[in-house]
Write a structure and sequence with these properties.
This protein is 30% helix and 28% strand. The protein is an alpha/beta fold. The protein has a domain at 2-101 and 176-254: 3-Layer(aba) Sandwich (Rossmann fold). Strands 6-9-10-3-11-12 form a 6-stranded mixed sheet, sandwiched between helices. Helix 6 links the parallel strand 9 and strand 10. Helix 5 (159-171) runs parallel beside helix 6.
């Protein structure tokens, strides 16, 4: 999607956030934020610690319902009071902890909470390991992902491979938007590149992605637009191809750029 200049008609709006606010006691963590995310768009969400990024995406992901404002998915207003509400609406969230169970293998983690079952001798329920493995291979290959030893516990996988398994679990559902919190943190250069490639592939398949990251190099490699938050407010929303690292840093630190944003 990086090559799409969006000079003509834009894709459909998957997410619209309208005047969203969230406070904790006297602290306004998110203050009257409005933004939109288009189909297949990669939106980087940046800002210093405490800028409000995590609170904003938690509201979108149903983890912390906002005090005011509304969230629309595909043009329909949604009450996202729980992560399950967000999942039903087509929103998946990849946290830094990933949420994998180390003792389970790849298909079991991909289908965690949505296990496929069969009946032994038509009466004893058990996991359908064969179907879950086949469906996992189909899912991974569809996104150009290759993982060794699918039947081994994921505790033996590398950081990038574990990241891929967690992403695959989100892709199993009918996801429209994926939120990723520092997806390349603690990954080596090669594994980070593979995760970047996977994000690009999801974008090409029409899945929208919001990426929270402090790494501006990744931001400019990956994002179509960059949303900058400071002190709970959205202080800038810029096209990645039409701005510079200098201006983004000024937005992060000062809340304005040389263009007066």
């Amino acid at each position: 999607m990086k090559s799409d200049t969006r000079t003509d008609a834009r894709p459909a709006r998957v997410l619209v956030v309208e005047r969203l606010s969230k406070s904790f006691g006297g602290l306004k963590a998110v203050d009257d934020v409005s933004l939109e995310v288009f189909e297949g768009e990669i939106l980087a969400l940046v800002g210093d610690n405490g800028a409000g990024k995590s609170t904003l995406v938690k509201a979108i992901a149903g983890a912390q319902p906002p005090d005011s404002g509304q969230i629309l998915i595909d043009g329909v207003a949604r009450q996202l009071n729980t992560p399950r509400d967000a999942s039903v609406a087509g929103i998946g969230c990849l946290h830094q902890g990933l949420g994998l169970v180390d003792t389970l293998n790849v298909p079991e983690n991909v289908f965690l909470g949505r296990e496929l079952t069969t009946k032994l001798m038509n009466c004893i329920p058990q996991l359908d390991q064969t179907k879950m493995r086949e469906r996992t291979i189909e899912l991974l290959s569809g996104f150009g992902i290759s993982l060794p030893r699918l039947n081994d516990p994921v505790v033996g996988l590398s950081g990038g491979q574990r990241q891929t398994v967690a992403i695959s679990r989100l892709l199993l559902q009918d996801v429209r938007l994926i939120i990723m919190d520092e997806p390349m943190a603690a990954l080596g250069v090669e594994e980070g590149r593979r995760v970047l490639d996977l994000v690009r592939t999801m974008s090409q398949r029409g899945i929208s992605v919001i990426v929270i990251t402090h790494n501006l190099e990744h931001v400019f490699q990956l994002a179509d637009r960059i949303a900058v938050m400071k002190n709970g407010r959205l202080v800038g929303l810029v096209n990645a191809q039409a701005t510079t690292r200098y201006d983004v840093v000024r937005l992060i630190t000062l809340g304005k750029s040389d263009q007066g944003n």
